[in-house]
Amino acid sequence: MKFSLVVPTVGRPADLQRFIDHLQLQGCKELALRDVELIVVDQSGQPATGELLARQTTDFAILHLPMAGRGASRARNFGWSFAQGEFITFPDDDCHYPHGFLAKVLEKFRDPQLAAISTSVEHMSRPQTPAGRITRGNVLECCLEAGLFARRLALGDLRYDELMGVGCESSWNSDEGPDLLLRMMARGLHIDYCPDLVIHHPNPLQTQDERLQERNFKYSRGRGYLLRKHRFPITQIAKTLIRSCGGSLLMAATGKFFWARYYWRSFVGKLIGLRGGKNAPQQLLTSPLAQEQRETVLS
Predict the structure, then answer these.
(1) What ranges do the domains of the chain cover?
(2) Edge-to-edge, what's the strand order for the sheet holding 3-9?
(3) Smallest Cα–Cα separation from 115: which of 80, 150, 144, 87?
């Protein structure tokens, strides 16, 4: 088994169907679809996802894992413990891969020293960030969870910190991906950024509404938490705070009041996260133990 794809989902069957349809097109000379497994961690509490998956006829295996509670990091860790592939990744249910994408990822891993890569995600990554090795200095520009591919066994006991990420029970609702990469680098693992590989994803900034404001505030709290947790230098912390505060003032001065509020809430969220990140644990795990669940689910 080459790839394990762990997809958390909360009641978005149409998006999940699109992901599956595009995944079915990934087979090629370099990669047989029988070497791919799709692990869907379903936190919806509704039958729609299970019914959709039961209707699928695919050349790759699909495992449906209903899971109580919410939290993307928690779901990823739960699905992770069932994974059998040499490489593991955690795509969003609303993204999809272009044709031949997984074969190109496999080509990157011909370097045996490479533990992981981070690809670009459409509308979310910074395309101007150059390719190369990921370090503490550029990790915040190079990592989105949907674009992370890693050698599963190389990660050992490292998992997503369940205090961080979308839907978690804490206030730190982002940056669980950079957090994982920082802990990987602390163990000496080699990670590359590969912006030439691009995952398709809807544009999260298309709709200017209160939902976008709230998501920005939550994500900013996670960013502040990450900066404090990993003891980033005061110069970098000051830079990100000045960028948010300055952006708010500039937008207000030009009459763009939606974006003035957006940047101000980013500034406030980062301050809250910076206070919360003091004495943060390296990782919190609460997801069910895999072996017990595996025997139940696969029996």
Answers:
(1) 3-204+282-298, 210-276
(2) 61-66, 36-42, 3-9, 87-89, 148-151, 114-121, 190-199, 132-133
(3) 150
Residue 19 · residue 7 · CB < 8 Å: yes
Each residue's pLDDT tens digit, 266-291: 999 999 999 999 989 989 888 665 44
DSSP 172: B
Scored b (16 or more CB within 10 A) or e, 71-108 reads bbbbbbbbbbbbbebbbbbbbbbbbbbeeebbebbbeb
Question: Percent of the chain, pLDDT > 90?
Answer: 81
The answer to whether the beta carbons of residues 55 and 130 sit under 8 Å apart is no
CA-to-CA dists, residue 90 to 19, 128, 285, angstroms = 12, 24, 17
Q: Are 262 and 243 spatial neighbours (Cβ–Cβ below 8 Å)? A: no
Reply yes or no on whether the pLDDT at 2 is more than 70.
yes
pTM above 0.70, yes or no: yes
Residue 232's DSSP bridge partners are: none
Task: Give the number of other Cβ atoms within 10 Å of residue 169's Cβ.
Answer: 13
pLDDT in tens, 128-180: 889 999 999 999 999 999 999 999 999 999 999 999 999 998 999 999 999 99
**Which fold would CATH assign to domain 3-204+282-298?**
Spore Coat Polysaccharide Biosynthesis Protein SpsA; Chain A (3.90.550)
Question: What's the pLDDT score for residue 299?
Answer: 46
